[in-house]
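User: Quick one: structure for sequence A, then sequence B.

Assistant: Sequence A:
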Amino acid sequence: MPTTLTAFADVTTSDSALRRFLHGLPGVDAVGLEARAASLGTRSIKTTAKAYAIDLAISMIDLTTLEGADTPGKVRALSAKAVNPDPTDRTTPMTAAVCVYPDMVATAKDALNGADVKVASVATAFPAGRAALPVKLADTRDAVAAGADEIDMVIDRGAFLAGRYLETYELIKAIKEACVRPDGSEARLKVIFETGELSTYDNIRRASWIGMLAGADFIKTSTGKVGVNATPANTLLMLEAVRDFRAQTGIQIGVKPAGGIRTTKDAIKFLVLVNETVGEDWLSNHWFRFGASSLLNDLLMQRQKLSTGRYSGPDYVTVD
């Protein structure tokens, strides 16, 4: 199996070449895509499998606070919850990461105190992405310098929708380079497409390929700040893209649905999508994440119910 992008070297040499490649991708059968996503969402799982799925989902959460009213105290509390989601049950897995704004990275890093939880930071003028490139680069470098393990960047949807594909590609490349530290280590890069603003499934497929060709470590559906965020259909489409990309290059890319995933039932539907579309290789938090805040509480309540036989209710978990 090839493990290189050499076969695609000519694709990104010019805007016209990239456009030809992207518009040459197979068109998306919207009806078929949505029908398959809906069909997979009806799968039922047994109790033992549900317990495993709940713990797996908890371990995949990027526990997120991205509000203008965020304070150091709130970030420290969220970090404590990421490390110890359920103080009454120390067998509960840690979450994958805490996701904050760049100015809160150092606070989260300090609060985690070496725990096996990553610090993710949004960057590039999140959520709109409406800023000049030097500002986006500075935003990214500040977060990396503060200790971010992962960067969640947003693409310029205006440039993409105007057909400036090479500009979108070069932005991602530039941010990828800004993720590299002086010692050569680097923060992993998640590229957010804001699928709710891309209008068509064909555009989501094209954006996925731009992100992967430009060096994304993850492709991510949404910011969680618009009306339409992660859906089973757009996540399925992105899973198909990373599957096809690995088949052609040998390079594995992660997927992160974000926004609107609030219940255990929702999370399990997405895990079924992963298992049935790309398989066990993606069933770890190194390759699949949930961008969420309220989801963790529902997972904890369902986990307690499986353990005790009683539904504890929202008063038994912390409110973030």
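Sequence B:
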Amino acid sequence: MEELRVTGGGRLGPIDSSRIPRYAGAATFARLPRLDQVDRTDIAVVGVPFDSGVSYRPGARFGGNHIREASRLLRPYNPALDVSPFERVQVADAGDMAVNPFNIGEAIETVQQNALDLTADGARLVTLGGDHTIALPLLRAAAERAGSPVAMLHFDAHLDTWDTYFGAEYTHGTPFRRAVEEGILDTEAISHVGTRGPLYGVRDLEDDRRFGFGIVTSSDVYRKGVDEIVDQLRQRIGNRPLYVSVDIDVLDPAHAPGTGTPEAGGITSRELLEILRGLRGLNLVGADVVEVAPAYDHAELTGVAASHVAYDLVTLMADTLTPATPAPIAEDH
């Protein structure tokens, strides 16, 4: 099938859905070109099909492609931010990283190296998970590229700062404790957003305070409202290099049932998107959307929410990047 694409701004954009039905053709993110179809990229969207670090329901290894399928509905212009991200910069789908599902340590090393390779020319990365274990190597790569520890906003129902599970130090519940220990997070500018639900004990919260995390619970979002929360987060982050990690279970199960460890009382998809949009202008250097488990999804509720979250993250990055002069688009594209 001939790929009839939108080419605004001299960038190779998504397949034109006014001429090729959304449900036809390959399901790259937002129907964007593959990495091998462009000469360079400013933002790469990459999948990590890995869920060997989960502690409850598996299946997030299939999350990246589920998000891609749901992203067929995305369009080139983002009116909420008044930005056409695919015209402003070159965005491409880098496919999936091939990680070892039987060796978590090796998988972490692979993700870190792949992230460094994909950003070697200055590109920024939006990663589709996969379970939350992958945030650690992605943060390592982001801090290396930034040349300093990075600020982080962690959207999640859970803290993910536990020490071990069954003696294992690297799981989807431990990445941010390891990141603090490794010195790759700026502990004056890190915060959880949307946390809720029972904990193992008060020590979980005490450890988080000791690590430097601020905590914005889902109840805080409900009672204070989006604008106050955004102002609070922006004051905490300042102009530091910022990494955003979104566990889709930050959303209430009504909005995202397809995830491994759902918790009642979450924020809405509208609240999440509005908080992200409130980060406009910050120095967003990397992001991930993780823990989408399609086996538990219905009517693509979770996939649709995750695809819009990833789209807004791409838009936020594109909005702050200085567009490079686009290379001529080859005829066979």
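The chain has a mean pLDDT of 95. The two ends are 12 Å apart (CA to CA).

User: Thanks, that's what I needed.
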